[in-house]
Amino acid sequence: MPTIIMTKWPVKIDGSVKAKAMTYLQKLSADDTTTGLHIEPIAGAADSRVRTGRVDQFWRAVMFRLDGAGESHYVIHGVWPHDDALVVAARVRLKVNPINGLPQIEEAEPEPRPADTRLATSSAASSSGPAAESLLGRIGRTRADLVDRLGVPADIADQALAAPDEDAVLDLAQQHEGWLGLLLVDLATSDSIDSIAERLQLEAPEQTGDEDADLLRSLKQPAAQAQFTFIDGQEELRRVIEKGDFGSWRVFLHPEQRRYAVRRYKGPFRLSGGAGTGKTVVLIHRARVLAREQPDARIVLTTFTTNLADALRDGLAQLDPTVPQATALNTPGVYVTGVDALAAAVIRAAGAGIGDAVKTVLGDARTTPTARTPNGRWREVIEASSSKLPPEIANETFLSAEYALIVLPQRVKNENEYRRVRRPSRGVALDRAKRDSVWALIAAYRAQCRIDGTLDFAEAAAVAAAHLETSGSQADHVLVDEGQDLSPTHWQMLRALVAEGEDDLFIAEDSHQRIYGNRTVLVRYGIKIVGRSQRLTLNYRTTAQNLRYAMAMLDGGDYVDLEERAEATGYRSARSGPRPVVETVESLITELDTIADRIRSWLDGGTAPETIAVLVHDKFQRERVVNALNERGVQARAIDRDRPAEGRVLVMTMHRAKGMEFVKVVLADVGFRSAAEKARLDGLDDIERHDAELRARSLLYVAATRARDELAVVQRR
Ligand SMILES: Nc1ncnc2c1ncn2[C@@H]1O[C@H](COP(=O)(O)OP(=O)(O)OP(=O)(O)O)[C@@H](O)[C@H]1O
């Protein structure tokens, strides 16, 4: 049976043609001698491997036929109307790039067009090197770097070397699929030529004299797989064709993404990377790889919230519906769940057996430890006490952090233990009297929760950890998304969930996106990364223009990763688009009018309403924006825990938008801080306030990086 090798669809074809192309390729993959396929060579074609095939009366497929290991292979170049297909087929050529060993489809132009004349002039002008005023010239790139070292085709190298700025290089990159586009994006950064070649895993080609065999080997190179994929069954064929560009994350991985998805690690591995660099994509692929290779393995895929877990579950089902998703912990398959739901599942499954773990953590038993402590309990405890502690200690932010970062992970159970406990990374020093007063508040908090029979999230994770430490692990591989938001007891639980060993923990994180909780250091909770960490730097989601705006939000902030190292910021985008529009307004009414006007213009331009989101700070403002939009004739809907629906513009908090993406985004309330929020921040000690400021910047960074194409910012004076 022939093997089909798909490329990213080079042309936009509508749904009915996709269906016909699908039928055609199914027949082709079953038997290429079927007469109705009309597979024909083209007389005088630039490449003797070129074939056309009859999709229907009007449409033709253009393909390359390769023979290797006694089997035929068809590289599908695309589908065109009959006459166009013949022109394309006569000109295209598939070859192995002589420098980097990657497959390259070239199109010979029949006669020079005006644009080519321009190109010829610029080539001639730049053949000795880049124009001094060009971006690549300023970075110090030479023509030899591009052509002789990396294998960029000479004409494209000349265009790149003449491009005046990053946007122009990105525009050029966008015209070239696959490895060439990726190379051009990298060339616009300050990365060394060696590191670019290493990132794409480029190697000089091995030439055996058997051209088809050389081409097939080249098509299997990691960087080739950003553009070409060997189809594994009919189902995969359908997915590639139907989802087109939107589904390309499922098939066409960056070589680095592929490496992290398939590689084996001797212990915990940490993958960092800015917003939109495909961390979640790697996790989903890795879950699939592990599940396929080890059908009996118990794999846990977890993240910070239930909504994000829903998205992971959907993503895994989209990637491969045949991967078994487990419905309970400790069973084979991939169990996808939010990290707090995971703690609840461990506790529920333990039944009455959880009593010992509760005692280990809290020092006494709870009757119904699955009920959740309500928000605001710390505040009630502070208000009910006659504590003499200064306000920067007697507040909810300080106490809940002290509890989650110090008391619970170290399993402090009484005043005596708290007097002696180490408090690394905590700003405020506590003398003995203060420690006793703080402990009195903690004891009051615990007493109230004991009466209610509740646990808070950090306690539940601590209890689950203690239980797993004595009862044994319940997973073989644990994959974690949004690691920057997890608290110490979450990490203790995840550490105990899986035994130490190969591929135990795989953690994706971006410390710039920490919008919940406090800084954590993995090694304190038994997770030893020891050199097993890497970073993704290519942003697939956000245009370079929006990314620059978002990155500016982080300027001056001192961000530290889960291994206590300064977080790097060198991200780049593969896409170019309009600059974000920033409008400053004086009042709430003007803000609401401005948001409505912006959305109306997007809707009038044909953008689907459900691909537009307005992101706001809190639920109060969310309701206000929804009402204002509806009053102004823009159908809008508030999104809370539910999934977004079709037909209406989405309005949600910036926290809720975490992990999501939209075609167009309005960021509202930027720069606005309510009086209550100001008072809260003023009441914090310096370190807590500094951390709250970092989180506030991160929240704007998260929000600004949700836009794929266009970002509008409405800021209040
Ligand atoms: N190899 C790829 N090819 C095409 N699109 C990709 C690829 N990898 C990721 N993407 C797309 O980029 C976007 C961001 O990917 P993903 O959500 O995995 O990034 P992330 O790093 O987890 O982002 P965030 O931290 O902002 O949640 C998604 O739309 C995804 O489909």
From TrEMBL:
Coiled coil region boundaries: none
Signal peptide: none
Keyword Hydrolase: yes
Broadest EC class assigned to this enzyme: isomerase
Key words of the record: ATP-binding, Helicase, Hydrolase, Isomerase, Nucleotide-binding
GO terms of molecular function: 3'-5' DNA helicase activity; ATP binding; ATP hydrolysis activity; DNA binding
ATP-binding is among the record's keywords: yes
UniProt-annotated stretches for the region Disordered: 103-134
Binding site for ATP: G273, G274, A275, G276, T277, G278, K279, T280
Gene3D superfamilies reported in the protein's UniProt record: P-loop containing nucleotide triphosphate hydrolases
GO biological process entries: recombinational repair
SUPFAM superfamilies, per database record: P-loop containing nucleoside triphosphate hydrolases
GO cellular component terms attached to this protein's record: cytosol
Catalytic activity field: Couples ATP hydrolysis with the unwinding of duplex DNA by translocating in the 3'-5' direction; ATP + H2O = ADP + phosphate + H(+)
Domain UvrD-like helicase ATP-binding: 252-550
Enzyme Commission number(s) from the entry: 5.6.2.4
Low complexity bias (residue ranges): 120-134
Record protein name field: DNA 3'-5' helicase
Organism (species): Actinoplanes italicus
